[in-house]
Design goal:
single chain; 157 residues; alpha+beta; Rossmann fold; 2 domains; 6 helices; 6 strands; globular
């Protein structure tokens, strides 16, 4: 799994960064941050070129690994200021889903990045971590868009 994160950094930053100490430190930190230590040296898994399946990490671990791959390389010359995630908590248990939302909020507040994500039916504890949100109804009609703290005032009007 560490190789997967390092490879994502190389794709983002260029091959010369694969042995960069900063990338190795970021990889280690992301593994810790997303609770992937238990599977750190496990193959990701999947199908090998039409061959048999290779057992690997779980679906929830894959989801957290995908987020780690998106975040590696931040703080370098190639850092982006917007992170876009589609259903980052889908398939995760309640604890891991809350951990992901917590880490994304930290990213937004400490790095100043904009984190844009789609989440269907967030837990109330996760919802309280959003600074602002856009609520859509069927057909994509906007029911509310704005700061989380202002939603009650807006819906009463």
């Amino acid at each position: 799994m560490n190789e997967t994160i390092a490879f994502a950094a190389c794709l983002r930053l260029g091959n010369q960064y694969i042995h960069d100490v900063d990338i190795q430190e970021q990889t280690h930190r992301l593994v810790q941050t997303f609770g992937l230590q238990a599977c750190e040296h496990t193959k990701v898994g999947g199908v090998d070129s039409g061959g048999p399946s290779v057992a690997g990490i779980s679906g929830g671990e894959r989801r957290r690994l995908a987020i780690a791959c998106e975040l590696v390389g931040r703080g370098t010359k190639a850092q982006s200021r917007v992170v876009i995630l589609d259903e980052p908590t889908s398939g995760l248990d309640a604890f891991q889903a809350q951990t992901v939302i917590d880490k994304l909020q930290q990213l937004a507040h400490t790095m100043g990045d904009a984190v844009v994500t789609t989440i269907h039916q967030p837990r109330s504890s996760s919802f309280l971590m959003f600074d602002s949100f856009c609520l859509l109804s069927r057909g994509g009609r906007v029911c509310y868009s704005g700061r989380r703290d202002d939603v009650r005032k807006k819906l009463k009007a």
